[in-house]
Specification:
Blueprint lengths: L3 H15 L1 E2 L4 E6 L8 E4 L2 E10 L8 E5 L15 E4 L1 E2 L2 E8 L3 E6 L7 E7 L6 E2 L5 E5 L4 E4 L35 E7 L12 H4 L7 E11 L2 E9 L6 E8 L3 E9 L9 E2 L10 E2 L20 H18 L15 H16 L2 E3 L14 E3 L6 E3 L3 E4 L17 E4 L3 H10 L53
Length: 479
């Protein structure tokens, strides 16, 4: 008689020979015509195997998926049994992970409609189908344009200089070289009212079959902040004052979203600014007249008035010169911060105040928005934030004197005070850098109480606790 271990191996081999095989780290696309008979697949052996199921069509199905890692089971199903598990499918996506040392079997139970299509995959390096935890990022909108970003990847590595050769970089006048390889991101947007994307299976293959609105005027890689590189899309051909839903598909397998945004009204006059290597986080509308000779109808490093960029780089150079009078790298003014940290935090703050951001009152808000930032909801009495907008009239002095007057009424979305406070914490005291306090009219210059609380020692306790969210709300400008 054969030993029990050998019998198990022989039985596993027989099961694998009798069924179709699912290759490791590969996606198999199927429809009702492709299902093998019996409707099962042998699974590859792996210490930790993740099996995923993704619906690629919107038909309602009663199909169920069962797996087993037992070498004695060749047809797992609803009757159960030892080591039989059901893959629960939620919003079109099912995921199951376990040890499959001797392989296993994935079985399909139920009747498939003629039009139903789906994908299955088995991977030893995490799920191949996935809804990403990170949402797409909204830069800003005009009446017919939008700047949108993919989730980040490949974050930069900051290496501080060392004493005695502690040399800090000057303002970046050229964009950094993008990475050699990057994920393949695809953007999908549609009017929220006309297409119910959120009611479809939340999978990459489902969203890839949908039609996107607008036109991609520019698609490029951009290192916006320390989170990493992103694919940046400049969308054109959108409708004014319209709610849109956005998804980003990564490598035809993973889905990010939904994220929502609304375009500005038809009278919104501020143009977008982007592609500024010295201020990579400036990806929003600024109070300048429409740019001349711009194919994309935005301001970038090629057409921004030199009075603005030259003044900015002068401020930054002078600050760096003063900062390095400290014996950086030798005399430590903080156990947590360095001169390089100070320079990066200061420049982020400088960009946020040097490039005022145009904003617009939400059409759903009936009361006038002000810089007080916090109101209350009448129905619940709970705090409800309003954006930190400050009205600018034709007689208002520009917040940045190097900006030409816009000669019309508009609103400025004020910078988040946390940008100022981050520079204050990161820099040595001798620089004299300080931020206004909430009780002394800080909200006349900054958005206060959104990320952190308005009072000291309330880090992360603001309302809503962030500068913007996936629903299209933007409360203060965080560069």
């Amino acid at each position: 008689m054969l030993p029990e271990t050998l019998l198990c191996l022989v039985n596993a081999a027989l099961i694998q020979a009798a069924t179709a095989s699912l290759s490791l780290n590969a996606i198999l696309s199927l429809n009702s015509q492709d299902i093998p008979s019996p409707p099962s697949f042998s699974l590859p052996a792996a210490q930790n195997l993740t099996i995923t199921v993704a619906y690629c069509s919107s038909e309602t199905v009663s199909t169920r998926f069962f797996v087993t890692n037992s070498t004695t089971m060749d047809d797992p199903g609803p009757d159960g049994g030892t080591d039989v598990y059901e893959i629960t499918v939620n919003q079109g996506l099912g995921t199951f992970s376990a040890s499959f040392l001797n392989g296993g079997v994935l079985a399909i139970d139920g009747t498939l409609s003629d039009d139903f299509s789906f994908e299955i995959a088995a991977s030893d390096s995490g799920p191949m189908h996935e809804v990403l935890a990170t949402f797409p990022l909204l830069g800003d909108t005009t009446s017919n344009q939008a700047l949108l970003f993919s989730p980040p990847f490949d974050p930069p590595i900051f290496i501080d200089p060392s004493y005695p050769n502690y040399t800090l970089p000057g303002p970046s006048l050229l964009s950094p070289s993008p990475p050699d390889s990057s994920p393949n991101f695809t953007l999908l947007i549609a009017p929220t009212s006309s297409q119910t994307l959120t009611s479809l299976p939340q999978t990459a293959c489902m969203m890839a079959s949908q039609t996107s609105s607008g036109n991609i005027a520019n698609e490029s890689l951009w290192l916006r902040d320390e989170d990493g590189w992103r694919t940046q899309w400049l969308m054109a051909g959108l409708s004014p004052q319209t709610n849109y839903t956005a998804y980003v598909i990564q490598d035809s397998q993973k889905l990010s979203g939904p994220m929502y945004f609304v375009t500005k009204s038809a009278v919104f006059a501020c143009p977008l600014a982007a592609f500024l290597p010295y201020c990579p986080g400036v990806t929003y509308a600024i109070p300048l007249p429409p740019p001349d000779n711009s194919e994309l109808s935005i301001y970038d490093s090629t057409n921004l008035p030199s009075t603005i960029s030259d003044t900015l780089t002068t401020y930054f150079t002078n600050f760096t010169t003063t900062l390095t009078t400290q014996a950086c790298g030798r005399d430590y003014y903080s156990p947590l911060q360095t001169c390089a940290d100070c320079q990066r935090a200061y420049f982020r703050w400088l960009c946020s105040v040097s490039f005022p951001r145009c904003g617009e009152q939400s059409p759903s808000t009936t009361t006038t928005m002000s810089s007080s930032s916090i109101g209350t909801t009448a129905s619940t009495g709970l705090p409800s934030p309003t954006s930190a907008l400050q009205a600018q009239t034709t007689s208002s002095v520009p917040r940045n004197p190097t900006f030409s007057p816009l000669n019309m009424t508009y609103s400025v979305l004020m910078p988040c005070i946390e940008t100022c406070q981050a520079a204050d914490r990161a820099c040595p005291n001798f620089l004299g850098f300080a931020c206004p306090l909430a009780r002394f009219n800080a909200n006349q210059s900054y958005g206060v109480g959104y990320i952190d609380g308005a009072e000291p020692n309330q880090q992360g306790l603001g309302i809503p606790g962030q500068a913007q969210d996936q629903w299209g709300n933007v409360w203060c400008n965080f560069v």
